[in-house]
């Protein structure tokens, strides 16, 4: 029998059955533990009793079994019985942690979902490397069906990452460790030569960015530039109409002048983040069409804290002498205000600035309040409601990003010793 493979972010309906099993296997290596969480429709755990693991193996509709080793292969098993779910439980999340290392050191890692007759699907976890905790996937109720979703994303702070991702707290949670102070030296020189008549839109935008950088005192600075693109269901019209592609083309010229190598790192996000290929001015045309598979993997709801944490983990795993500017596109509908605010405060000692950009005419709600998050070392986030980007001139767009927001953070971060 051929077993189908679910890629990261992919979901499918399961054949009717009283119970299913998620089985994770690997060869000898660092110690791996399996853990599960009973979650509501919003992906939140109601309390510590919703955690199923070796010290609390029985939950309502989920049972953890001790790992078994045979022939050099260790197998972990979680049985899921949807008919036994109680209260608000609408899904079971399956996670893994590794002790004393990362998943790069776990050989032969494999995950599969089984029904009563045997294996139904292989869950492709990709090639995790720096993570020491992984979300394997979710088994969940959707209308009248039971479905499985392969996730394969992880964290670099172990079990703590899995726990906080579902809304639980860790009593002794420390602040995010500060990264070494970075120096804002300029790797690429800014030119203020005015484009000739008939110049391309790219050259005109580069000039507008250059003017904004000079006016804001950032022309001698270098940043790593990241673009996070909202792929929640409400953004489909923005993608179909080309608004998202045109917005990307407005952003990539920032990286051309400000980034240390002229590239912009890209993440798509919905419920879960998907890192895609970097983009530069020369590769920007039709970028979203070429990366449609990555975008599709990220589609769904919107849970911003996951992509924010993954970007922060990336800055720690791939350190740079330059700070990071995150251009964060969203059309609103943000509901995880508490988690976003806590993350911003905890990461406020890091050389990372979050520039939230509201795209599409929407009730931005939470996003607008991110412009004034209190309690951190510095204010490390700003919000610019753009609505219709085609009506906003280059001068206004770049002038507000750098003059109103990034320069303000740069001054505060310099005074706080986060950058020099």
From TrEMBL:
Residues 222-419 form the vWA found in TerF C terminus domain. Pfam families: TerD, vWA-TerF-like. It comes from the Bacteria. SUPFAM superfamilies: vWA-like. Residues 26-165 form the TerD domain. Belongs to the CAPAB/TerDEXZ family. PANTHER family: CAMP-BINDING PROTEIN 1-RELATED (PTHR32097), GENERAL STRESS PROTEIN 16U (PTHR32097:SF4). This is VWA domain-containing protein. It comes from Dactylosporangium aurantiacum.
């Amino acid at each position: 029998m051929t077993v189908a493979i679910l890629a990261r972010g992919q979901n499918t309906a399961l054949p009717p059955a009283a119970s299913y099993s998620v089985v994770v296997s690997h060869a000898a290596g660092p110690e791996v533990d399996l853990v599960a969480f009973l979650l509501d429709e919003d992906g939140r755990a109601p309390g510590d009793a919703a955690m199923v693991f070796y010290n609390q193996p029985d939950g309502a509709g989920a049972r953890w079994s001790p790992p078994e080793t045979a022939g050099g292969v260790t197998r972990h098993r979680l049985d899921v019985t949807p008919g036994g779910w109680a209260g608000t439980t609408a899904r079971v999340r399956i996670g893994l942690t590794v002790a004393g290392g990362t998943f790069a050191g776990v050989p032969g890692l494999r995950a599969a979902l089984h029904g009563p007759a045997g294996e139904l699907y292989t869950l492709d976890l990709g090639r995790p490397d720096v993570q020491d905790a992984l979300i394997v996937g979710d088994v969940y109720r959707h209308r009248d069906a039971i479905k499985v979703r392969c996730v394969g994303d992880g964290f670099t702070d172990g079990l703590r990452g899995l726990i906080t991702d579902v809304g639980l707290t860790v009593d002794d949670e420390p602040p995010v460790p500060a990264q070494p102070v970075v120096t804002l030296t300029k790797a690429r020189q800014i030119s203020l030569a005015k484009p000739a008549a008939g110049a391309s839109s790219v050259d005109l935008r580069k000039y507008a960015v250059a003017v904004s950088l000079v006016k804001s005192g950032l022309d001698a600075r270098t940043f790593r530039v990241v673009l996070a693109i909202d792929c929640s269901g409400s953004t489909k019209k923005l993608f179909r109409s080309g608004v998202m592609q045109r917005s990307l083309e407005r952003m990539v010229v920032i990286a051309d002048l400000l980034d240390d190598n002229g590239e912009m790192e890209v993440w798509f996000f919905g419920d879960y983040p998907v890192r895609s290929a970097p983009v530069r001015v020369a590769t920007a045309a039709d970028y979203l069409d070429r990366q449609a598979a990555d975008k599709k993997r990220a589609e769904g709801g919107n849970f911003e804290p996951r992509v924010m944490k993954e970007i922060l983990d990336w800055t720690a795993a791939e350190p740079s002498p330059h700070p990071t500017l995150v251009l964060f596109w969203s059309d609103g509908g943000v509901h995880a205000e508490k988690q976003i605010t806590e993350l911003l405060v905890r990461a406020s000692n890091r050389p990372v600035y979050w520039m939230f950009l509201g795209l599409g005419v929407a009730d931005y709600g939470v996003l607008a309040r991110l412009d004034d998050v209190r309690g951190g070392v510095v204010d490390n986030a700003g919000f610019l409601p753009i609505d219709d980007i085609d009506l906003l001139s280059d001068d206004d767009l770049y002038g507000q990003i750098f003059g109103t927001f990034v320069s303000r953070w740069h001054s505060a971060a310099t005074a706080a010793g986060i950058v020099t």
